[in-house]
Design brief:
Blueprint (H helix, E strand, L loop, with lengths): L3 H21 L1 H26 L4 H25 L11 H18 L12 H15 L7 H4 L7 H7 L17 E4 L2 E5 L4 E4 L4 H13 L8 H21 L4 H5 L1 H13 L2 H6 L6 H23 L5 H16 L4 H15 L5 H26 L2 H10 L8 H22 L4 H32 L10 H9 L1 H17 L5 H16 L6 H9 L2 H24 L1 H20 L6 H4 L6 H8 L7 E4 L7 H11 L4 E2 L6 H9 L4 E5 L7 E4 L7 E11 L2 E3 L10 E3 L2 E8 L3 E2 L5 E3 L6 E3 L3 E4 L2 E2 L4 E6 L8 E8 L2 E4 L1 E3 L7 E4 L7 E9 L7 E6 L2
Parallel strand pairs: 4-5, 4-6
Antiparallel strand pairs: 1-2, 2-3, 6-11, 7-8, 8-11, 9-10, 12-13, 13-23, 14-15, 15-22, 16-22, 17-21, 17-23, 18-19, 18-22, 20-21
Keywords: Membrane, Transmembrane, Transmembrane helix
């Protein structure tokens, strides 16, 4: 039943929120329900993935049990937690209405996420791997070509085509990563044909679960609730920061400040594009914002002696760890937050300890799973993104290091708990200085690269220029100033998260070269945009409160409205551009399904190396992962194709352009031309943002084009002019006594070879050339034992002639016919 699991998840959220509303408060209860349901579904998906059983019924049973346990735990918490007196919230109904309008509007703008399937980019790999998991229940695809299971294609030839070299038995790469298959997929075990995706697995697991619930065409729908989670958490985070302010006027406007931050995120053009594209930043950002919101709510609950503080802290730490299951760079965020929590030991020790323990344990498990499933991508990503030395330990050693590091952090936290108050104060000052230096360095780097340029890219291709183009100067200025004031004024409650925000901005500033905005921008600004939105909203709230205190409420309201217009209108002028609604390379799963349905199972699929658009890199991954076809992602050798055809394996060629005839020769510099016949034709539409260096794209271009699926005939043509014909070739016309061929170009100095089956009965076979001047009987040559029948071609032959063979026997069978140059 479509949507059953989604309905169960929504019912679980509503039930848990209703049970805990009078124990935790409406807002906090909703956050707990959302976080618990999200974590439970993620855990069930990852566990079933590790067991190789992520399939419909195991998933349904697992989620049903997990949701039942969550509701049971909510019942237990309700019995143990005391009821609280509902807090009086000023303007509660207008606040709820505004929140609902912004959430509905934001979700509506993002209601149709990209169904991106092309495998040449990382985001296409996520969707294809998710579809593969939904089809098979497991993570690791098995390439039958690599394993040597395709008829007529020796495993050694495929290994040579992929340039797979034998690994020494003592190499840490043996059985782990023995070569590269295509972008985002690596050969884990070449002999077994086992591949492994080179990234963290939580997001493809969500795509697989959604596909099992709603179908392949809607597998990317989790992007919509991911943004909704981010939006709710962003609102709650900004609201909590305002409630923790010492200024009563700011506290009175806490809900409004949360709405302002949410509006800045919902209407930001870059966020509109990123949140609807299949990149891990969407899920990781939801984890980051939800963790920050729950953690600050936990600290406030402990300080106010409200119930459920430790529960909120544990959920916050686990949400942050879920981000580490999603994206490799999030592990760096976890390390920064863990170190900040060690230095800033605030006035809520119980929640801080619970948050720290959940964060360290969850992130440790995430790294262990990454090592086991994505080694050594984990270490190569660390080297590429953070410029640390590239390490290649064995998986068992890497797991041991990870567990030891996690245990050391937990022990260090226990040891630092004995520090004296002066030393704790010194540690907080050190953390504040480090956060300030990081933010100052980020500002210097941004200014220098935006105006002075760098060796890697022009000033127009830097993070600052991208943020200015898409969001305007005011939110950027307010965000940086607000974050700087937060670094200066944050107490021990907020200091770890402020330090993490400064680290996020610094990381984005140090990266350089947003060469093609709509592809690379997600790496640079996905986390920066919500950080700036929260900092801008909080700074605006403090400025309005100060103005109201000095000038009165009316001038403050007018100034607030003017600043909001200056903040929100510049991005809105870009939103109507169609590039924000179609995304980069937004293709249709039905188009690819219609393309690959013409390729039967147990066949060999090749890709035309003449075609533009890197067809091999873009479509080999979906052919293998999403549609289960035996796709050769490497350039094929002539012997590979000939061996497959000789064994009777159908061979198909996917070309990126139409040819005028239905029977064609496929030219290849090394192995062609080969004769083919067209099986199917069509036009593949893939609207994409115009490629612009140093500017926001303003229009769409079609990144697809016509496609043509051809089947190679069993007549193999070579660049020398030689050819081989096999039984059932369309270039052989069979008769009751033998067979003739179409007129074919004949090379000088060649001979005709006819291979008969082993043990075939004696049969008299003659060969002749049919030319315009009449038939020319060919002279027979001596035959070796078990060798082919041989005929010599004349010294001078026409450019083309029809070759005719006749046999005088009752049952004439043959293996293949060749015309070969040389002796």
């Amino acid at each position: 039943m479509p949507g059953l699991l989604t309905a169960l998840a929504l019912l679980t959220v509503l039930a848990v929120a209703a049970l805990l509303r009078d124990r935790l408060g409406a807002v906090v209860a909703l956050c707990v329900a959302l976080a618990g349901t999200f974590l439970a579904a993620s855990a069930v998906g990852l566990i079933l993935l590790d067991l190789g059983r992520l399939q419909p019924w195991p998933l349904r049973l697992g989620l049903f049990a997990a949701f039942a346990i969550i509701i049971l735990l909510a019942f237990v918490a309700r019995r143990r937690l005391p009821a609280i007196t509902p807090a009086i919230v000023l303007h509660a109904r207008p606040l709820a209405l505004g929140l609902g309008v912004l959430i509905v509007a934001g979700v509506g703008l993002r209601l149709h996420p990209s169904p991106y399937l092309q495998g040449g980019q990382d985001q296409g790999i996520y969707v294809n791997v998710g579809h593969h998991i939904a089809r098979t229940g497991r993570l690791r695809p098995v390439d039958r070509l690599l394993r040597g299971a395709v008829r007529g294609v020796p495993q050694a030839d495929v290994l040579a085509a992929y340039r797979v070299k034998p690994q020494p038995a003592d190499s840490p790469l043996a059985g782990v990563r023995e070569g590269r298959w295509t972008a985002g997929i690596h050969i884990e075990d070449a002999r077994a044909g086992r591949l492994v995706p080179a990234f963290f697995q939580l997001m493809p697991v969500w795509f697989a679960m959604c596909e099992l619930d709603w179908g392949f065409a809607r597998s990317t729908w989790p992007l919509v609730p991911f943004w909704a989670l981010s939006a709710l958490a962003l609102f709650g985070l900004a609201r909590r920061l305002a409630l923790d302010s010492a200024d009563p006027l700011v506290r009175r406007r806490a809900g409004t400040i949360g709405l302002v931050a949410l509006a800045g995120l919902a209407l930001h053009p870059l966020d509109l594009w990123i949140s609807t594209f299949t990149v891990t930043e969407n899920l990781a950002r939801a984890c980051l914002l939800m963790a920050a919101c729950l953690s600050l709510e936990a600290g406030a609950a402990e300080r106010d002696d409200r119930p459920g503080a430790r529960l909120l802290a544990v959920l916050g730490g686990l949400c942050f760890a879920a981000g580490a299951f999603t994206r490799g760079s999030f592990v760096a965020h976890a390390i920064v937050l863990a170190l900040a929590l060690l230095l800033a030991r605030d006035g809520a020790p119980r929640t801080r300890r619970a948050l720290f323990a959940a964060l360290v344990v969850g992130t440790t498990l995430a790294v262990v799973q990454a090592v086991l499933h994505s080694w050594p991508y984990f270490f190569s990503a660390a080297a590429n993104h953070f410029h640390v030395p590239r390490l290649t330990p064995r998986p068992a050693v890497a797991v041991a290091w990870t567990l030891a590091a996690g245990a050391a952090l937990l022990l260090l936290d226990l040891g630092l708990g004995r520090l004296s108050p002066p030393l704790r104060g010194l540690a907080r000052r050190v953390l504040r200085v480090l956060a300030g230096l990081g933010l100052a360095l980020a500002a210097i780097v941004l200014v220098r690269r935006a105006w002075l340029g760098s060796d890697e890219a022009s000033p127009e291709q830097q993070v600052l220029a991208v943020l200015l183009r898409h969001g305007g100067p005011l939110p950027l200025l307010f965000g940086l100033v607000g974050l700087a004031l937060a670094v200066r004024r944050a107490d021990e409650r907020h200091l770890p998260w402020v330090a993490l925000a400064a680290a996020v901005v610094l990381t984005a500033a140090l990266k350089s070269g947003v060469r093609y905005e709509f592809y690379y921008a997600r790496y640079f600004v996905a986390d920066v945009v919500p950080v700036l939105a929260v900092a801008t909203a909080c700074l605006l709230g403090h400025l309005v409160a100060r103005l109201e205190r000095r000038r009165g409420p009316r001038p403050a309201a007018l100034a607030c409205g003017a600043v909001l217009l200056a903040w929100l209108l510049p991005p809105l002028r870009l939103v109507p551009r169609e590039v924000y609604w179609t995304r980069d390379l937004a293709d249709d799963p039905a188009q690819l399904a219609g393309l690959f349905e013409h390729v039967p199972e147990d066949s060999l699929l090749l890709f035309d190396d003449r075609a533009p658009g890197r067809w091999r890199g873009l479509l080999a991954a979906p052919a293998l992962l999403s549609f289960g076809r035996d796709a050769l992602a490497a350039a094929p050798g002539g012997h590979i194709v000939e061996g497959a055809l000789k064994a009777g394996t159908p061979v198909f060629l996917l070309s990126g352009g139409w040819e005028p005839a239905d029977r064609q020769r496929w030219p290849s510099a090394a192995h062609g031309p080969w004769r083919t016949r067209v099986v199917a034709r069509g036009v593949y539409h893939a609207p994409r943002a115009e490629t612009v260096e140093g500017g926001a794209p303003a229009r769409l271009v079609d990144g697809g084009g016509p496609w043509e699926l051809q089947q190679l005939d069993r007549s193999i043509w070579r660049s020398s002019g030689a050819f081989s014909l096999y039984p059932d070739s369309m270039f052989v016309a069979a008769t009751h006594t033998g067979f003739v061929t179409e007129p074919l170009p004949l090379p000088l100095g060649a001979r005709v070879e006819l291979w008969l089956p082993a043990g075939a009965p004696a049969c008299e076979v003659t060969a002749a050339l049919h030319t315009d001047a009449g038939p020319l009987v060919l002279a027979s040559l001596p035959r070796e034992p078990d060798g082919p029948l041989l005929w010599a071609l004349p010294a001078r032959v026409p450019s083309s002639a029809a070759l005719a063979l006749a046999a005088k026997c009752d049952a004439f069978t043959w293996r293949w016919l060749s015309v070969r140059a040389g002796p």
